[in-house]
Specification:
Layout lengths: L2 H9 L4 E6 L11 H13 L4 E5 L6 H6 L7 E4 L2 E3 L2 H11 L13 H18 L4 H26 L1
Parallel strand pairs: 1-2
Antiparallel strand pairs: 1-3, 3-4
């Protein structure tokens, strides 16, 4: 029995394996904010978990079978595959709950949705490949998203 299996069994933790995007070297942890977010949630919850970095250029066949058509991040929780990052967060908060594990969910769940929307618009703006033709469209989407997030946060106060 590995140290991981032994620790999980003795501490009565769920068996969790997190599959995240590998860095440019194909092995180190990559720069995917969604992968890093799930890693941080598990770490802050204080559970023991395995991390497998996945080189998207050479994705192993067994991973294609485990989560067909899905790229990291995804995870297994007691053998059950979970692929949607937002649903994984909700699932972890539900399964790894107080008093044994700390609560990490925001007081107002709407704030999380607003943050996700702002991040998506910001990412599109930053990654815009054709600044000359698309800048106005992405600029407007980002500005609208930021204004809505600001208005939402003021109404929650």
């Amino acid at each position: 029995m590995s140290w991981y299996e032994n620790a999980v069994q003795k501490l009565d933790f769920p068996t969790i394996e997190l599959f995240i995007k590998a860095g440019s070297d194909g092995e180190a942890i990559g720069n995917c904010p969604f992968s890093q977010r799930l890693f941080m949630i598990l770490w802050l919850k204080g559970v023991i978990f395995n991390v497998t970095t996945v080189d998207l250029k050479r994705k192993p066949a067994d991973l294609k079978d485990l989560a067909p058509g899905t790229n990291p991040p995804f995870m297994t929780f007691n053998g059950e595959v979970r692929v949607d990052v937002n649903k994984i967060e909700e699932f972890l908060e539900e399964k790894l709950n107080p008093p044994r594990f700390p609560k990490l969910a925001p007081k107002h769940p709407e704030s999380n949705t607003a943050g996700i929307d702002v991040f998506a618009k910001f990412s599109a703006y930053i990654k815009n490949p054709r600044k000359d033709t698309n800048e106005g469209k992405y600029n407007q989407a980002l500005l609208c998203s930021l204004l809505l997030a600001t208005v939402s946060s003021l109404s929650l106060s």
